[in-house]
Design brief:
With 212 residues, the protein is of the alpha/beta class. The protein has 3 domains: 15-112, NAD(P)-binding Rossmann-like Domain (Rossmann fold); 114-147, 2-Layer Sandwich (Double Stranded RNA Binding Domain), CATH 3.30.160; 150-207, no CATH class. It contains 8 helices and 7 strands. 22% of the residues are buried.
């Protein structure tokens, strides 16, 4: 079994080409849109869920059969058709500097996409390296329950608070103590309860050196 190297890539405004416009392509598009990738679909037909995205310009649809030149600008390539010959043609056309995923043949892929739980900037990924996709989905569901929607606002708050702490305190024990104090469990609970005033008051006390 392949041992994969986990990595989070910055795909903002970079081109990702998906060859195929069916159900699998729809799943891949759903994971790519939040990271602001420039998604290009190459397929004679398009899944009904993808058509509104194409009409709104959120993805680009090339309504045609695949040709090697369709990959010219791609950073990532996903061969997602149900025709082996087409997926093989995509694989053969990919350049050595382009990363490719074949949804029908993991062993021929440069990368695989893990099950993902996304709460704004907070991202959790789960992979069994293809050994058991069912287990990955099960763990993903458990993580979705454990790390609820409140984590998006919570992590955004921590991000801003961290910048404020860094601006207030020089590097050293005081800054480290303040950053550690930001992990006070009550902050998450206040976020869940919508008690933002208590959260803000705690931060201000922290910045004044009253909570360390």
């Amino acid at each position: 079994m392949t041992n994969y190297f986990p990595i989070h890539m910055n795909l903002e405004y970079k081109t990702v080409v998906i060859v195929g416009g069916g159900h699998v392509a729809t799943q891949k598009v759903a994971s790519l849109l939040p990271v602001k990738a420039n998604v290009v679909i190459v397929s004679p037909a398009l899944h009904e869920d993808l058509q509104p995205l194409a009409e709104l310009g959120q993805i680009t649809w090339k309504r045609k059969e695949f040709e090697p030149r369709d990959l010219d600008d791609a950073i990532l390539i996903i061969a997602a058709t149900n025709v082996t010959a087409v997926n093989e043609a995509v694989q053969e056309a990919a350049q050595h500097w382009q990363l490719m995923n074949r949804t029908d043949r993991q062993s021929e892929s440069d990368f695989i996409t893990p099950a993902t739980v996304r709460r704004g900037p907070f991202v959790l990924t789960v992979s069994t390296s293809g050994a058991s996709p069912g287990l990955a989905r099960k763990i993903k569901a458990e993580l979705e329950d454990q790390f609820d929607d409140a984590y998006e606002d919570y992590v955004c708050f921590l991000q801003q608070a961290r910048l404020m702490v860094a601006a207030k305190f020089d590097k050293g024990p005081q800054r480290r103590a303040a950053l550690q104090a930001l992990l006070e469990p009550n902050i998450l609970e206040w976020t869940r309860q919508g008690e933002m005033d208590r959260r803000e008051a705690y931060l201000q006390q922290l910045l004044m050196g009253e909570k360390q």
